[in-house]
Structure formats: structure tokens, C-alpha cells
Design a protein that fits this description.
Layout: E1 13-14, E2 20-26, H1 33-45, E3 50-56, H2 58-67, E4 70-71, H3 73-81, H4 90-96, H5 102-112, H6 117-120, E5 126-133, E6 139-143, H7 149-156, E7 166-168, E8 171-175, H8 184-189, E9 195-198, H9 214-218, H10 223-249, E10 253-255, H11 270-286, H12 288-295, H13 309-320
Parallel strand pairs: 2-3, 2-9, 3-5, 9-10
Antiparallel strand pairs: 1-4, 5-6, 5-8, 7-8
Amino acid sequence: MKIYGKIDTIPTGRATDEITKGCLVLEGGGWKGLYTLGVLDRMMERGINFSSVVGVSAGALSAIGYVAGQIGWSARIDLTYRHDRNYCGLGALRRDHGITGFSYLFDDLLRKHPLDSARLNDPARRLAVSATNLLTGEAEYFEKGHCDIFRAVQASASVPYVTRPVMIGGVPYLDGGCAEKIPIRWARASGEEKIVVVRTRELSFRRKPGAPKIVRTLYRKYPAFVKAFEAANESFNDTVDLLDREAASGKVFVIAPSEPVTVSRFDGDMEKLGALYWLGYHDMERQLDGLRGYLGQKSDSASNPALTASVRRATRCAGSSGSA
């Protein structure tokens, strides 16, 4: 099984118990989510642990390890098991009727790589994910403590075309990005004054309006979903235009890839995926002072004092490899 050649350089460790006031918003994007994981690991190393997190699709999956405070947990799973057919392949298709093996992830891999469930379930650390209701075509938010969060994450990351809808409360759901690709509405309603958005495409990226015609055929039983799906790209462009203006005025803080992302939604090139992780890691480090300023924190270069020696070695290794 192919794994990332530099898997041993991915940081490990535990985040501090500090809670950073603010809402972190995580865009989806399939395997482009490795960029997000690099950003989040560096945030945790630097002691930035947001009180509220909302994610969609790959962003929902990325949020799990971050809220649990486990540096490198998500990245190591993705960069180790990408080519395990039970995680992403025929085994997943047979067991979960989709391209991602959620049963394998949330049952088998969680036993092998346990999460800090106490921290994940801490009510002081809010986590919400969005999924698209096929009956209404609207993005709905599910918050831990009020639902089965793992089931909600599965719904949020269930890619259309190739995944069977996930039933929650008798309602069919698919990928939250079908209706809302950046889950900013929950962030604005969260009550948090500071909002930080992590993108998975460069700031200049915009989508072509419309959707593939096959959507109308595959989901003809769900006309509201089809309508929302067809409008989603234009809505995305409006959202990022607004975020650009709000970032310029200091209302929000946006972290986005510093160079064009060539990783595709279903990319299997492990070295490209690893390079994208390190791009996110180093982009976060470069923007650290700006982020601290936005959050009203003192600018400093001190690392998380609780980091282990292995984390510090990984940090030096990352610095020597650039974004590769």
C-alpha cells in the first residue's frame, strides 16, 4: 500500500488546554483538505485552539482531530491510509456505499488511533458540521452534543454522484458543499466576534456557474436539491467576494493557499498530498503574527511549551523541506 514517503515527519503531540475565543470556518475540497490539516496542526502547535469550529465535507473531517487537540492525527491517517481500499476504494463502496470508508474510519481506525473523546466532547469546545438536506436543498447544521456527530460528519462528507445519501432522522442528506461550500452562516450566528476562514483554494479562485446536467437525472426526485446544487457555484463566488472585502476591512481573517493548488478532489499522488499538507503548515506559520494581531494576542514566536521533542524535530524537518 502506497503511503506518504515522509510520513515520519508529520508532527505529533497534544494541543494545550487553552481556548482561543473565535470561530474557525473550514472549507471542503476532498483531498485538498490536506492543506487545512497542515494549517490546523501548526495552529495547535502555536496554542491556537478555537472555541467554535464549523466545517463542511473534508472540512468537517478535518475538524475532528483539531477539536480533539491531537496534532497530526488526521494528516497521518490520510497520508497512511489513502490507498487502503477500506478507507477509500472498493471496500468502502461495498461497506458504506460511497468512496469514503466511514465505518472503517470511525470503527476500525479509531480503535487503532484513538481520539481524546473527553476533549472532543467538552461542551466548551463547540463543533458543527453542515450537510445538505435533499428534501429542501438547504444546508443544515449539526452540532456535537445535540446529535451523533460522527453520523453528521459522514453526511457532510458524502460526495454526490458516487455516494448513497445518509439518513438522519428519516431525512436524506449529502455533502454540505452541495448547498454551501463555505459554512459561514453558522459562524456569523455563533456569537463569536472573531471569524477565521481556512480556504482550500487560492484567493483568486472562482467557480464556473451551473452544475453538470447529470444532476437533474440522478436527483430528479429532489427538485429543491437540484436547484440548490445548480446555484451553489455562483453562491460560492458571491461568498468569497464578500470574504475578500471583509478580510480587507479586518472583519474576518482568511488563510488560503499561497500558490495554486494542483491536487484534485480524488487525487492519489501521495507526495503531492504531503506537499499540500506542508504548504498549509508553512502558510500558517507565515501568517501567525497577522492572525495573533487579528485575535488581539501578543505577537511572539514561542511554540507550544507542551510539545514533545518529536514535534520539535518535525518542525525543523518541515522548515528544511519548504512546501514539499
